């Protein structure tokens, strides 16, 4: 059985921390850079990023899609955006973005922390979704891809 605990990667983006934060904290834009999130919208009266706000995310891997409703746990403009998602059989995972001024832009760090592990039944479901036989590697590659795509979007918008 696989295990997940935590991972993080960082990248330099030639845009101000506030601009990169604004892009990440607008969860409706997540599909522009996330390899798994295919849709996201604010729900339960939330109008935007704030601690306690909820959003509905649709994740897609291959031909399989599922929904979850994360809760924002930190929303500090230009510094941090964190949310946690809990799925009944798939535990609780906290996703965190940190933004630090660096030279002419921002050092962005994306990370996840497994707060409550996935169950054995959850692993069977995840493994049965197709080609994802190594979820740890898939998530690591997903972080790398999302950061690179985030850089492309943020730098394009900053130069416009």
Labels describing this entry:
single chain, about 160 residues, alpha+beta, five-stranded antiparallel sheet, three-stranded antiparallel sheet, 3 helices, 8 strands
Write a structural description.
The longest helix is centred in the C-terminal third of the chain and has 25 residues, at about 135-160. β6 and β7 (about 90-100) form a beta hairpin. With about 160 residues, this protein is α+β, with helices and mostly antiparallel strands. A 5-stranded antiparallel beta sheet has the order 1-8-7-6-5. The chain has a 3-stranded antiparallel beta sheet with strand order 2-3-4, with no helix packed on it. It has helices at about 15-25, 120-125, 135-160, and strands spanning about 5-15, 35-45, 55-60, 65-70, 70-75, 80-85, 90-100, 105-115. The termini are far apart.
Describe the SSE topology.
Layout: E1 6-13, H1 17-25, E2 37-43, E3 54-61, E4 64-68, E5 71-76, E6 80-87, E7 91-102, E8 105-116, H2 120-127, H3 135-159
What is the number of beta strands?
A: 8
The average pLDDT value, as a whole number, equals 88
Helical content class: 25-40%
| Beta-strand percent range | 35-45%
Largest sheet: 5 strands, antiparallel
Strand order of the largest sheet: 1-8-7-6-5
Compute the CA-based radius of gyration.
15 Å
Number of helices: 3
Shape call? globular
Low-confidence stretches: none
The arrangement of helices and strands along the chain is EHEEEEEEEHH
Quick take:
By secondary structure, this protein is of the alpha+beta class.
């Amino acid at each position: 059985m696989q295990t997940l605990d935590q991972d993080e990667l960082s990248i330099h983006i030639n845009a101000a921390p506030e601009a990169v934060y604004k892009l990440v904290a607008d969860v409706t834009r997540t599909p522009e850079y996330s390899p798994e999130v295919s849709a996201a919208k604010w729900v339960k009266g939330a109008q935007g990023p704030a601690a306690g706000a909820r959003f509905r995310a649709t994740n897609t891997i291959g031909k399989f899609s599922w929904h979850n409703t994360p809760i924002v746990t930190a929303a500090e403009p230009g510094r941090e955006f964190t949310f946690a998602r809990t799925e009944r059989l798939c535990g609780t995972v906290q996703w965190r973005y940190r933004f630090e001024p660096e030279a002419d832009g921002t050092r962005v760090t994306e990370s996840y922390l497994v707060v409550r592990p996935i169950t054995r039944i959850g692993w069977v479901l995840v493994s049965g979704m197709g080609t994802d036989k190594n979820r740890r590697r898939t998530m690591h590659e997903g972080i790398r891809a999302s950061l690179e795509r985030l850089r492309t979007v943020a730098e394009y918008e900053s130069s416009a």
